[in-house]
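Progress note, sequence design subtask.
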């Protein structure tokens, strides 16, 4: 190889090496690539809500309890089927709240398309319990005292059966003595008509089922109403009473020994607690749950959010009792963690599943 060719090869290698060492520069006619645009949360709106002093029975996806809410002080209260994040409702107070309302993207069909978040509790004013003498049809929860039987005569509601009615915003709801129900009503002065609507379909023992059928028949026959001496009377077209109620004052969930009347045995229905046995539930302010399961004592935990409740699987002591009592105990303890909602009407507590099936019903015991 001659000297000239060798020189040309050396120069070429040197040029390639020099090119490899040069920095890579961005195109001169283009700026650096812009970062991808960040997704922004939907804009929210801040509103003022006025919240009434009591929860009321209502029917959404299933039986539940709703707050009564309005946006202006002069408006009528309406059912509020959602929750307000960060807000802890306490019965007996009227609230003025500032709330951030934010759209929910791709909300499920059975859920709200809006999210409500507490910004500020502007005011919280105690409300004196409304006396039965001053109560109107709408607002209070009414407890059924007597109802017409098949002959049209008023008969007292049997002990241990609680049926209720809450009238608000054209809807009446409550417990029929067995199932939860919803209905529509129209009011014109003292004229009142009630059109029964959706109802859960649980089978209950007697006399609950009889009271339920009698109450629904009374609603269908109602043509007017009267309130006197603290008592609400539903009247038929001839002015005869078909049902009478008194104002119901609710108990608190905590600080009460609840004595079970019925429980779900896991085989499709609610059954009475065995004679000569007692099942109890005590909900502590600290989130603890304890009581007697009929033979052994049990203990666990619970949390609530409005009318929603979650109960942890409980533990229990290990004492042996007769087989029938042990079976009742096992069924009751298995039923407790299926509870999704609770309602308190007067001195009675009900736990129900998300589908509205009764988990257990209790009456307030003597503390």
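Output:
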């Amino acid at each position: 190889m001659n000297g000239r060719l060798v020189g040309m090869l050396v120069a070429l290698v040197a040029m390639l090496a020099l090119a490899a060492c040069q920095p890579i520069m961005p195109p001169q006619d283009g700026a650096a690539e812009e970062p991808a645009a960040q997704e922004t949360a939907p804009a929210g709106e801040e509103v003022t809500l006025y919240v009434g002093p009591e929860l009321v029975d209502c029917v959404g996806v299933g039986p539940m309890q709703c707050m009564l809410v309005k946006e202006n002080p002069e408006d009528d209260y309406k059912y509020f089927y959602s929750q307000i994040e960060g807000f802890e409702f306490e019965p007996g107070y009227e609230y003025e709240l500032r709330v951030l309302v934010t759209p929910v993207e791709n909300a499920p069909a059975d859920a709200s398309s809006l999210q409500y978040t507490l910004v500020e509790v502007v005011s919280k004013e105690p409300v004196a319990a409304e006396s039965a003498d001053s109560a109107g049809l709408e607002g209070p929860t009414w407890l059924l005292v007597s109802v017409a039987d098949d002959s049209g005569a008023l008969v007292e509601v049997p002990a241990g059966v609680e049926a209720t009615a809450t009238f608000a915003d054209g809807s009446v709801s409550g417990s029929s003595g067995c199932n939860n129900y919803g209905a529509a009503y129209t009011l014109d002065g003292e004229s009142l008509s009630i059109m029964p609507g959706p109802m859960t379909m649980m089978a209950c023992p007697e006399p609950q089922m009889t009271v339920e059928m009698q109450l629904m028949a009374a609603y269908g026959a109602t043509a007017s109403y009267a309130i006197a001496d603290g008592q609400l009377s539903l009247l038929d077209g001839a002015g005869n009473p078909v049902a009478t109620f008194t104002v119901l004052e609710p108990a608190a969930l905590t600080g009460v020994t609840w004595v079970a009347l019925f429980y779900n045995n896991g085989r499709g229905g609610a059954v009475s607690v065995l004679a000569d046995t007692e099942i109890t539930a005590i909900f502590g302010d600290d989130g603890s749950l304890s009581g007697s399961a009929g033979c052994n004592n049990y203990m666990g935990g619970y949390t609530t959010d409005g009318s929603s409740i979650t109960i942890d699987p409980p533990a229990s002591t290990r004492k042996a009792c007769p087989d029938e009592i042990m079976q009742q105990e096992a069924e009751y303890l298995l039923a407790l963690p299926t509870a999704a909602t609770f309602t308190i009407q007067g001195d009675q507590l009900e736990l129900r599943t998300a589908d509205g099936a009764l988990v257990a019903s209790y009456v307030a015991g003597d503390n």
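The first strand starts at residue 45 and ends at 51. Work on this subtask will continue into the next period as scheduled.
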